[in-house]
Design brief:
Ribosomal_uS9, Ribosomal_Su5_D2-typ_SF, Ribosomal Protein S5, domain 2, 150 residues, Ribosomal_uS9_CS, ribosomal protein
Amino acid sequence: MTTIEKPQSAIQPVQVFGRKKNATAVAYAKKGKGLIKVNGRPLEHVQPEILRLKLQEPLLVVGKDRFAGLDIRIRVKGGGHVSQIYAIRQALAKSLVAFYQKNVDEQSKKELKEQLVSYDRGLLVADPRRREPKKFGGPGARARYQKSYR
């Protein structure tokens, strides 16, 4: 377990965001007791239940002891259930890396980053794909209305 070396007053909170499609999750990490809350609820109460394991991936990959010394509050809005879950997990992983960069040391930040990227690059790097805007002449972005010759 890495101990936080700086004096109490020098430890600064960090704020990062994670995005997936139209969902945006903003994570605020500060020194604390290891609480992680999403929209005011503990991580264990996030719905849907099936996707909860996806949320816990950053915790399981780097170990819960890395999260023991900090509290993370996450606000998420926009998008659907799945994209919100992916935005939350990205914000969680990015907040841990940013906190270690700002308050611990560069070496442990590099180790964290390597662990997370080797497991899933999507934990730290946003997916650039976005919804394509609808055009006229059809019901969607590419689909056209049916054409009749008679």
